[in-house]
Amino acid sequence: MIEISKSKRPGQDEYLLRLDDTLGDQLRTIAARRDTTQRALIEEAVRTYVMADTAGQNDADLAPLISRLIQDQHITLGKGFRSLQVRLGYEVIRMQYVLYEFMTQAGIPGSQIATWREEGWRFAVKEFRRK
After folding, report:
1. How far lies 28's CA from each of 16, 24, 92, in Å?
2. For residue 20, what are the contacts with CB-CB under 8 A and spacing of at least 6?
3. Pick from 66, 67, 22, 16: which is nearest to 42 by CA?
4. Residues 65-96: pLDDT tens digits?
5. Side-chain half-sphere of 11: how many Cα atoms within 13 Å?
6. d(CA 18, CA 3)
7. For residue range 27-51, what is the model confidence (pLDDT) as tens digits?
8. What is the DSSP letter of 42?
9. Which has the closest alpha carbon to 42: 76, 15, 73, 81?
10. Is the pTM for the entire model greater than 0.70?
11. Residue 127 pLDDT more than 70?
12. Which is it for strands 15-19 and 2-6: parallel, antiparallel or unpaired?
């Protein structure tokens, strides 16, 4: 059993710590093994406990905020990526229209342009698989 009481002497902010015999023996053994005082060992234990509790509390407070931030960024990124895909799709369609219009005005028959387009896709797929 551990009992902590504040010092009754005026002007002193020290605490008195009373340990049961088995815990006191273990504390003395560890202090001797580490070549330090019992007070230093107790202070280190209290500091470690308080810091671990504070870190756990901070993690509990920050984890939902970080999770929400990641979700918001994921949603924003998804919207931006979709709009980029749409813009690129429109650009490809526009470039195809300009190219086909140029080929038609150059006097190449439309049936031959369609054949080139189909052959171009087959060639692109074959080159992609080859690499």
Report:
1. 17, 6, 79
2. 1, 2
3. 16
4. 888 888 888 888 877 888 888 888 888 888 88
5. 0
6. 5
7. 889 889 989 888 888 888 888 888 8
8. H
9. 15
10. no
11. yes
12. antiparallel
